[in-house]
Amino acid sequence: MKKILVTGANGQLGRCIKDATKQFPQMEFTFADRDQLNIDEATSVKKYFEENSFDYCINTAAYTNVEKAESDADAAFKTNAEGVKNLAEACNSSHIVLLHVSTDYVFDGEKNTPYVETDTTNPISVYGASKLTGEQYIEENCEAYFIFRTSWLYSQYGHNFLNSMLGAVKKNIALSITTEQLGTPTNANDLAEAVLAIVASGSKAYGLYHFSNTGSGTWYDFAEAIFTYSRQLKNVKLGKTAHYRTFAKRPAYSILSTEKFKKTFGISPIDWKTSLAQLLQNHTNHK
Questions:
Q1: Please, which residues have CB within 8 angstroms of residue 257's CB and are 6 or more apart in sequence?
Q2: What are residue 161's phi and psi, to 5 degrees?
Q3: What gap in Å lies between CA 217 and CA 237, rounded to an integer?
Q4: In principle, which of 35, 114, 188, 197 could form an S-S bond with 16, CB 3.0–4.6 Å?
Q5: Per residue in 272-284, pLDDT tens?
Q6: What is the DSSP string of 105-122?
């Protein structure tokens, strides 16, 4: 039986992986939150891996506050770079396959066709830079790894755009949503299932991959779809804005090509609107 460690167990992706485990009864899972395994602390990571035996480590632990990272770069790099390095070294020493989730924010958004894995990276935010450094540490310190870049991740769990929009409706807040960024909203449940399917397959096609749902839209399109599929479009004051001031710069274009992922693993992500509609249908009570 394959033994899988999932770090960052209380984050949205960690929780989605936990939900998906029922589809993979042939695997044994250990979920570790920050209290049980703080990846920032090298000695703690080393000790944890010496005391436990795993075949795979799925790292979902991350510093994800894009805005706050601009004024708290040390904390972002501590987790997204140094913490990832700690895991990479521990996995390599213990012959554990590392699966790590990265981001479309490693790119500058200057392109106008979907980003492929070999495109030049050029992050324009502290968050993007910290995640890119984490990728580089994995490549330098770990032989058996998968890195999955994804985009605009959301789910029924935690702090994300979907839950922010649904919360705004309840508070009757007027919304002005930006149209200046184009990307692909990605359901964390789809990513969770894809990652576990790769573990179950025993694939050794290690390397860097892009995974997102398919199609594209602006943040305004995403908001409109949320309210349409939750049947609340009539109840919300929704407006567009070309410019929405944020502390952190964000890529204007961040659509990822999933062709390499599809060809390698035989898994085809579904359209983002279809996935969103399914999630809203299945989870009427969001937490």
A1: 114, 115, 116, 210
A2: -60, -40
A3: 20
A4: 188
A5: 999 999 999 987 6
A6: GGS-S--SS-B-TTSPP-
pLDDT at 287: 43
Span 68-81, average pLDDT: 97
The total domain count for the chain is: 1
Query: Among 107, 261, 76, 266, which residue's Cα sits nearest to residue 183?
Result: 107
Residue 248 maps to a domain: no
Mind listing the pLDDT tens digit for each residue in 144-163?
999 999 999 999 999 999 99
Which H or E run includes 178?
strand 175-178
The phi and psi torsions of 256 (rounded to 5 degrees) equal -105, 135
Average pLDDT of 91-100?
98
> How much of the chain, in percent, has pLDDT values that exceed 70?
98
Band the pLDDT of 121: cuts 50, 70, 90. very high
CATH code of the domain containing 26 = 3.40.50.720
64-88: average pLDDT: 97
Question: Does residue 26 form part of some domain?
Answer: yes
Residue 59 inside a domain? The answer is: yes
CA distance 119 to 107: 8
Give the integer Cα–Cα distance in Å for 27 and 25.
5
Which residue has 């209380």 as its token pair? 10
CA 206/CA 217 separation, integer angstroms: 30
Rounded Cα distance, 213 and 281, in Å: 18
8 A C-beta contact, residue 233 and residue 168: no
Q: 77 lies in which domain range?
A: 2-160+184-215+254-270
Catalytically active residues are: 127
